[in-house]
């Protein structure tokens, strides 16, 4: 029983190694909830943001504006700096914030050096001091 308790108390730790692999391979994800924040952070309007970093605008048959995604603009992420940091870190898209938890733990073709590291919690068994 104690061995099972020990395993349950292990904590997986994600400590980014700043290798840039996720940004290079997964690119810039579209996050409609943070488009306005990202545009404001960059000092541009949302149409310019979409056209410059995501793709080309077009008008749908119903008159609504939409965009086609252009992978050449999104891969590698255009906000990946030479030192492998994120130029828009404070307003980065949610998928970037959640990496690797909302993916298959980084396996999306990314050989992330931070995946799989673990460290046990400091713990004691009940009744021990």
Note down, in words, how this protein is organized.
This protein is α+β, with helices and mostly antiparallel strands and 129 residues long. The protein has six helices and four strands. It has helices at residues 2-8, 21-26, 35-42, 46-54, 71-74, 94-98, and strands at 10-12, 55-59, 65-69, 118-120. The strands form two sheets. It has a two-stranded antiparallel ribbon. β2 and β3 (65-69) form a beta hairpin.
User: Rg from C-alpha positions?
Assistant: 20 Å
Unreliably modeled segments: 1-9, 120-128
What is the molecular shape?
Answer: elongated
End-to-end distance? 19 Å
Largest sheet: 2 strands, antiparallel
> What percent of the residues sit in helical stretches (DSSP H or I)?
25-40%
How many domain modules? 1
Strand order of the largest sheet: 1-4
Oligomer: single chain
In DSSP terms, counting alpha (H) and pi (I) runs of 4 or more, how many helices? 6
- Taking all residues together, what is the mean pLDDT? 79
Number of strands: 4
